[in-house]
């Protein structure tokens, strides 16, 4: 183990009057909320990629972070990966987060070919197994990076070159094997470049069929190896491509239905991606719940003055509260959880900035969770919703919905009863004021 990277071993909980940046003010993992430990509600996970693989660059400038595992500090790539793992688990332990998540390329160095990539990944999985045993850390999900290397510039599953499809499928298999070895609770597919930049060189039908074949291969392999976790797809509408096929929950659900996978695949939803799709985060969560495909979330935010995915840590309690409101109303997480797919700003260069950012995000989520629980226990929002649709619970309403009445019979009903509806207020401002009472 190298010299400690962070200034503190364990982040304490000090309560709402806390002013220490290296202490929790609201996240108390053992606090009982709605009959359950807060830790078990939120199921926090730390993203390996943004925390340990991102160098702090942007389109106009390169690396700003100075990390002991970066290539300019240590030349042996496997040694660097092991140092990175040491520091990652140091941070996981300090934060007390129960889970982490990773892409293969986050944790292992790029090899000369597929075989060397696989060997490198398996060597790091050996390290992870030992560290997870020592610390009690768990894996929320694993995934494959099928977008960073230049071979994926035209997509992975949707690439015009079948060799890229094959390389991608083989890589997914190795990452599923790694996730299985580490007792991961889910496996995620994020199609970072599964889309197009111009229709002038794109065969939509062919590419969507290829994507369907890949997803079926994943589901088939899940059952073959007895993987008990969920397969999750993460929607995103654009960036880096002009248009991505996994645009939003509704689009993905239609795709799953076409390929007979709606009972096999769930959603990993990210706040920033929902905003880029023109939705709210709670919309995507509520729709996934309604369609029976909600799985897990990536918690972050975008800068609303920027038109791209800035992956900032959450700081908006009302927004977070509404997200957890819909999650709790749907029964809460099962295999999923709250992964911080968020990164430091490139000027936040100190080691402890990694801790401070996660502490703030975890506190915001804790406040949002408690506000969501308070709204549910108060019951006013639910009562107002039930009242708005109460007419559908009458015999007439049930007959209209069930198909018991034909169009002709409905016309007769309207004539005979002289039905002439009077509009009723949706009371939106009143409902928003109720939310504001709790946040």
TrEMBL record:
It comes from the Bacteria. The active site is at residues 103, 106. Mg(2+) 1 binds at residues 234, 270, 298, 341. Mg(2+) 2 binds at residues 270, 273, 309, 311. SUPFAM superfamilies: Xylose isomerase-like (SSF51658). GO terms for molecular function: magnesium ion binding; xylose isomerase activity. Its cofactor is Mg(2+). GO terms for cellular component: cytoplasm. One of its GO terms (biological process) is D-xylose metabolic process. Its EC number is 5.3.1.5. It is found in: Cytoplasm. Binds 2 magnesium ions per subunit. It catalyses: alpha-D-xylose = alpha-D-xylulofuranose. Its main location: cytoplasm. Keywords: Carbohydrate metabolism, Cytoplasm, Isomerase, Magnesium, Metal-binding, Xylose metabolism. PANTHER family: PTHR48408, XYLOSE ISOMERASE. NCBIfam families: PRK05474.1, xylose_isom_A. Homotetramer. Belongs to the xylose isomerase family. This is Xylose isomerase. It comes from Paramylibacter kogurei. The lineage of its organism: Bacteria, Pseudomonadati, Pseudomonadota, Alphaproteobacteria, Rhodobacterales.
């Amino acid at each position: 183990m190298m010299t400690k990277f962070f200034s503190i071993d364990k982040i304490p909980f000090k309560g709402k009057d806390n002013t220490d940046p290296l202490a929790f003010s609201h996240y108390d993992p053992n606090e009982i909320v709605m009959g359950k430990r807060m830790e078990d509600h939120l199921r926090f996970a730390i993203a390996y990629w943004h925390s340990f693989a991102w160098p702090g660059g942007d389109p106009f400038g390169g690396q700003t972070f100075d990390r002991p595992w970066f290539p300019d500090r240590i030349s042996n790539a496997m040694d660097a990966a092991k140092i990175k793992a040491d520091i990652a688990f140091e941070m996981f332990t300090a934060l007390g987060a129960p889970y982490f998540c990773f892409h293969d390329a986050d944790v292992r160095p790029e090899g000369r070919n597929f075989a060397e990539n696989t060997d490198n990944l398996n060597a790091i999985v050996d390290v992870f197994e030992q560290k997870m045993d020592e610390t009690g850390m768990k894996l929320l999900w694993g995934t494959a990076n099928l977008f960073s290397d230049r071979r994926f510039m035209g997509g992975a599953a949707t690439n015009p070159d079948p060799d890229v499809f094959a390389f991608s499928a083989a890589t997914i298999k190795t990452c599923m094997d790694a996730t299985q070895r580490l007792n991961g609770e889910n496996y995620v597919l994020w199609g970072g470049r599964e889309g197009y930049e111009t229709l002038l060189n794109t065969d939509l039908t062919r590419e969507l069929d290829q994507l369907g074949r890949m997803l079926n291969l994943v589901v088939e392999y899940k059952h073959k190896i007895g993987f008990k976790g969920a397969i999750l797809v993460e929607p995103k509408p654009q960036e880096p491509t002009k248009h991505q096929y996994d645009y939003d929950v509704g689009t993905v659900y239609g795709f799953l239905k076409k390929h007979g996978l709606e009972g096999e695949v769930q959603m990993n939803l990210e706040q920033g991606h929902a905003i880029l799709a023109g939705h709210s985060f709670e919309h995507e969560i509520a729709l996934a719940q309604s369609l029976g495909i909600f799985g897990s979330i990536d918690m972050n935010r975008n800068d609303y003055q920027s038109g791209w995915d800035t992956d900032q840590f959450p700081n908006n309690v009302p927004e977070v509260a509404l997200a957890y409101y819909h999650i709790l109303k749907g029964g809460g997480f099962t295999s999923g959880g709250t992964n911080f797919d968020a990164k430091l700003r490139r000027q936040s260069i100190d080691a402890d900035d990694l801790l401070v950012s996660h502490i703030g995000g975890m506190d915001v989520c804790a406040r949002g969770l408690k506000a969501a629980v308070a709204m549910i226990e108060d019951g006013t929002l639910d009562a107002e919703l039930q009242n708005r649709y109460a007419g559908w619970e009458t015999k007439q309403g049930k007959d209209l919905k069930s198909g018991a009445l034909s169009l002709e019979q409905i016309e007769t009903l309207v004539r005979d009863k002289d039905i002439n509806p009077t509009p009723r207020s949706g009371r939106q401002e009143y409902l928003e004021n109720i939310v504001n009472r709790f946040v």
